[in-house]
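Example S7 (structure tokens).
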């Protein structure tokens, strides 16, 4: 499904974002620009009027073919804080469940003068497919596609790390849990590598952390103590049982015994290590309540940072569309 070069598809002729589909192919300059712009939006949450006019008059459509209350809500808040008109399309009751194709639905939404689609889909490459087939002046933001990518989640994680650690150089990061089925882990690997961390460790059982991930520049660890030894950042991932086929785990209790993050296992990391989780959390499966709610946890910071990062990406993509020669040509033909 993903035929186009990701960089060529995502950037306009001036090297600016016009879609945000994957972190693959995006350089450190663009990722840093996203983080810097997100920083500028963080203080808005403390203001009495939480709005800026950057997307005033624009229509943003949330196209969620998979359920995700947290991600959809933060995208909706981000759009509204940018002064956009936001529409949440209920896919379960939409025409796509009545036999209308995805392309038919997109064309109808385009005909309603939509300016941006936020897409979440169970199929890897769905956001790329939509970007390739939409009219040139509609921005596409990937809110998670299959096992492939979740770029805004990775970027809000990067913002959280930068705000707590100052920079990425010299950091050791452990990502623990169901790596095999995680689009978050893949996007985190790309962003952490691009931003220059010292070491990335993928930790979990062999069935959930296959050896081929080492080709992406990560160190594979099947022992939790070795994986957490002296790390600065711990990212816990949930077990994605809905994506598992076959007996990849003996039991949840066995997984927690071997790979669950508890106060004891947290002590193997550096004393000032931070603990992250993209959510939803399964307490007593991958992380204890004491750690999830403890002083090392920055999980709620991630939620707050998610709104700012999504505001940054949406505003940058819309600006890139407006400055694209393709968009200008398309508008000129109308």
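Recovered sequence:
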């Amino acid at each position: 499904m993903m035929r186009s070069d990701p960089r060529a598809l995502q950037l306009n002729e001036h090297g600016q974002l016009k879609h945000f589909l994957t972190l693959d192919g995006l350089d450190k300059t663009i990722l840093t620009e996203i983080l810097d712009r997100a920083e500028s939006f963080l203080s808005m949450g403390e203001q009495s009027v939480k709005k800026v006019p950057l997307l005033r008059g624009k229509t943003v459509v949330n196209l969620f073919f998979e359920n995700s209350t947290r991600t959809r809500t933060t995208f909706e808040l981000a759009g509204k804080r940018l002064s956009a008109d936001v529409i949440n399309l209920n896919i379960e009751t939409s025409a796509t469940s009545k036999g209308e194709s995805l392309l038919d639905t997109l064309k109808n939404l385009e005909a309603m003068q939509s300016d941006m689609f936020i897409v979440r889909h169970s199929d890897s490459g769905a956001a790329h497919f939509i970007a390739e087939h939409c009219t040139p002046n509609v921005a596409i933001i990937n809110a998670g596609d299959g096992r492939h990518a979740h770029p805004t989640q990775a970027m809000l994680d990067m913002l959280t790390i930068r705000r707590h650690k100052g920079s990425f150089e010299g950091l050791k990061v452990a990502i623990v849990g169901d790596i095999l089925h995680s689009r978050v882990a893949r996007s985190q690997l790309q962003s952490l590598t691009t931003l220059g961390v010292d070491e990335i460790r993928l930790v979990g059982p062999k069935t959930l952390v296959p050896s081929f991930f080492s080709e992406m520049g990560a160190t594979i660890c099947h022992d939790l103590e070795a994986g957490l030894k002296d790390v600065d950042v711990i990212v816990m991932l949930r077990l994605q049982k809905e994506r598992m086929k076959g007996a990849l785990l003996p039991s949840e209790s066995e997984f927690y015994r071997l790979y669950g993050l508890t106060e004891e296992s947290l002590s193997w990391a550096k004393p000032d290590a931070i603990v992250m989780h993209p959510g939803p959390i399964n307490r007593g499966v991958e992380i204890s309540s004491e750690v999830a709610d403890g002083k090392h946890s920055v999980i709620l910071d991630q939620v707050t940072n998610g709104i700012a990062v999504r505001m940054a990406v949406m505003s940058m993509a819309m600006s890139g569309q407006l400055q694209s020669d393709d968009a200008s040509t398309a508008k000129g033909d109308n």
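Notes on this example. The longest strand covers residues 139-145.
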